[in-house]
């Protein structure tokens, strides 16, 4: 298990610290810095704690979904976050999002999924919703999340999933340019079929400004962090 990363990551907090701290659980450590910047915008006086555990994602991929020990470890992180003064735990990995939901009744602080607001926004944005992912273990959970959001709103929606084969492997292998190229290629195909495209993983958000398919493109970081306000 990767050792937890704790403490503010983007420099000193300006002004007095007010209210409980915010904890974030990452399976991709590189997400900590950009999400800390977003958190500082919505809660400028909050202390931010980061927990990074790549094994949660690795074990989820190996088991085609979160195995029981991932749920147990997630609950442990929630307990540690509360003991460290956090009032909320934001889970930033969509692949373990459903495990985060199952952990909620077992935790003593709110556990938020970073992608829930994005799913709600997608349902409002169009009748045909494309879900783009680089991991099968994320594509399924995000598709189900959007479908549940549509059901809650009693809004019939068609969901079109698309997996960008090879993109995650390229990113893991140190080739972000190849990752982005494959994601943009998948986006181009999907955008022709739908009214709105959802990027299933926070790590895909970097392509938003380069995706030009004539349809809205939704990513989870900004709307997900906005929940912390």
* CATH architecture descriptor text of the largest domain: 3-Layer(aba) Sandwich
Order of helices and strands: EHEHHEHEHEHEHHEEH
Rounded mean pLDDT is: 89
Task: Briefly note the CATH topology name of the largest domain.
Answer: Rossmann fold
Q: Would you report the number of β strands?
A: 8
CATH structural class of the largest domain: Alpha Beta
Lateral strand order in the biggest sheet = 2-1-3-4
Mass-distribution shape: globular
- Strand content of the residues, in percent? 15-25%
Distance between the termini: 30 Å
What's the helical proportion of residues? 40-55%
What's the domain count? 2
Based on CA atoms alone, the radius of gyration comes out at: 17 Å
Uncertain spans: 1-17
Q: Give me the number of helical elements.
A: 9
The assembly state of the depicted protein chains is single chain
Kindly list the characteristics that best describe this protein:
about 230 residues; Rossmann fold; Asp/Glu/hydantoin racemase; single chain; alpha/beta; 8 strands; four-stranded parallel sheet; disordered N terminus
């Amino acid at each position: 298990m990767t050792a937890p990363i704790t403490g503010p990551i983007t420099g000193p907090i300006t002004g007095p610290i007010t209210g409980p701290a915010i904890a974030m659980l990452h399976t991709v450590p590189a997400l900590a810095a950009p999400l800390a910047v977003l958190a500082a915008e919505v809660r400028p006086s909050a202390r931010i704690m980061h927990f990074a555990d790549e094994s949660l994602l690795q074990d989820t991929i190996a088991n085609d979904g979160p195995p029981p020990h991932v749920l147990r470890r997630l609950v442990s992180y929630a307990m540690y976050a509360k003991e460290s003064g956090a009032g909320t735990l934001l889970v930033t990995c969509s692949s373990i999002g459903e495990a985060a939901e199952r952990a909620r009744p077992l935790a003593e602080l709110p556990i938020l999924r970073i992608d829930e607001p994005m799913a709600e926004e997608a349902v409002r944005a169009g009748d045909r919703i494309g879900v783009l992912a680089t991991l099968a273990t994320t594509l399924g959970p995000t598709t189900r999340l959007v479908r549940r959001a549509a059901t809650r709103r009693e809004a019939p929606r068609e969901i079109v999933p698309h997996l960008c084969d090879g993109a995650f492997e390229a990113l893991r292998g140190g080739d972000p340019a190849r990752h982005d190229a494959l994601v943009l290629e998948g986006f181009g195909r999907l955008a022709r079929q739908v009214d709105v495209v959802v990027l299933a993983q926070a790590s895909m958000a970097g392509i938003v400004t380069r995706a030009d398919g004539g349809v809205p493109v939704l990513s989870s970081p900004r709307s997900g962090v906005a929940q912390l306000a």
